Amino acid sequence: MGEIVMNSSVPGPRSIQLKQEREEAVPQALANATSIFAKKAYGALLTDMDGNTFIDFAGSIGALNVGHCPPKVVESIKAQLDSFIHTCFHVVMYESYIKLAQQLNELVPGKWQKKTALFNSGAEGVENAIKIARYYTKRRGIVSFERGFHGRTHLTMTLTSKVKPYKYGFGPLATDTYRMPYPYYYRSELPRPEADRNALRQFERLFSMEIAPEDIAAVVIEPIQGEGGFVIPSKEFLQGVKGICEKHGILLIADEIQTGFGRTGKMFAVEHFDIEPDLMVMSKSLAAGVPLSAVTGRAVIMDSLQKKELGGTLGGSPLACAAALAVIETIKEEKLLDRATFIGQRMSDRLNKLAQCCPSIGEIRCLGAMCAVEFVKDRTTKEPNSELPQRIVKMCLDRGLIVLTAGWYGNVIRFLTPLIITEEQLEEGLQIFTEVVQECEKGVFKK
């Protein structure tokens, strides 16, 4: 007997009613990946308003590494509510902010002394990391990468690579930003080492064609591209980028918003590549879905700003700090780094086996429990298949499994399962995905 319970079609009557109310009250620009409305959730399970229980392979786009309603987090938030909700750290300080900063200073890679500032969202964290980098270096230029995603605020949507739906119609965009290639080995015409060298050569070419290196403040990079399709670079590429930064006095900002807090089998993805960034941005699973972001960096950089030059009324709220401290404790106590490695290996084994009989699967990419399947119309031409993932997502939801798409062409299905998912739930979800892909495959290739 599985964990999934389907009491109605999807969406059910209550979800349909709420969807109508949503359309009247909420702008259409706020897109929804599924057609259901949540009633309750725990662990890796979510129950909608019609009593249907789903296995969640989406994890709130990576915000739920410790699962829905993790006990320690819930207890910590409740305890904080009994004391006080908010004082604004700039008005009256509180211990949990300091404790969390101390823990992040210890966890983030780097042998130097570090300091941490807390904010509300990932995009806000990226914006502040760039403010800090520009202030410290007294330079203006910021480099990001093709297929990168860093947020939806004015500056972060400029840094984000994809035009639609993130940037089109919202111009003019921020100035002094530059975009460099990020290796995509599956779609490269060059072998991996040459693809790395070519990307790094183009980086160096920027210095003579666009902007002097002495005028670049920072490079912002995702160690693994999230929205871009879980594209995993080589250690040589990331270390090459770091080497260029060190050569020219450019700060390296690691965007670990989706990759952090155990997702890849390490606390942070940069640890796989032996990289120590100057500044790191964290959010999403930092506080189990409670709005919170952090910028942790070398103390000499963080302390270059003067008083009142960073901040925000709600940044690092007591509720969020309490949640984050409980998240870190949960990751350690439940050995979720090892669990992420196990989940990733299990997924990789099952998905690669599925790929052997499904020609529409072009590539499987996994690092820890950050896994993705890229779909193509033809394995030889590698033409992206954007329609098939949409159908798979819908069919999976109808059977009780929540999954999401990603990728430059929208042809990738990504998995961000809570790391506390049971083996039975993981197997049940993978079985549904396997059956759906096989059914879709037959339908596609019979035509």
TrEMBL record:
What InterPro entries does its record include?
4NH2But_aminotransferase_bac, Aminotrans_3, Aminotrans_3_PPA_site, Class-III_PLP-dep_AT, PyrdxlP-dep_Trfase, PyrdxlP-dep_Trfase_major, PyrdxlP-dep_Trfase_small
**One BP annotation, GO:** gamma-aminobutyric acid metabolic process
Q: What class of enzyme is it?
A: transferase
What is the superkingdom listed in this entry's lineage?
Bacteria
The metabolic or biological pathway listed in the UniProt record of this protein is: Amino-acid degradation; 4-aminobutanoate degradation
Q: What is its EC number?
A: 2.6.1.19, 2.6.1.22
The UniProt entry, under SUPFAM superfamilies, shows: PLP-dependent transferases
Signal peptide positions are none
Q: Which reaction does it catalyse?
A: (S)-3-amino-2-methylpropanoate + 2-oxoglutarate = 2-methyl-3-oxopropanoate + L-glutamate; 4-aminobutanoate + 2-oxoglutarate = succinate semialdehyde + L-glutamate
Q: Name one GO molecular function term.
A: 4-aminobutyrate:2-oxoglutarate transaminase activity
Q: Pfam families this protein is in?
A: Aminotran_3 (PF00202)
Keywords, A to Z? Aminotransferase, Pyridoxal phosphate, Transferase
User: Which cofactor(s) does the record list?
Assistant: pyridoxal 5'-phosphate
Q: Which family does it belong to?
A: Belongs to the class-III pyridoxal-phosphate-dependent aminotransferase family.
Protein's UniProt name: (S)-3-amino-2-methylpropionate transaminase
Protein source organism: Peribacillus saganii
The record's gene field reads gabT
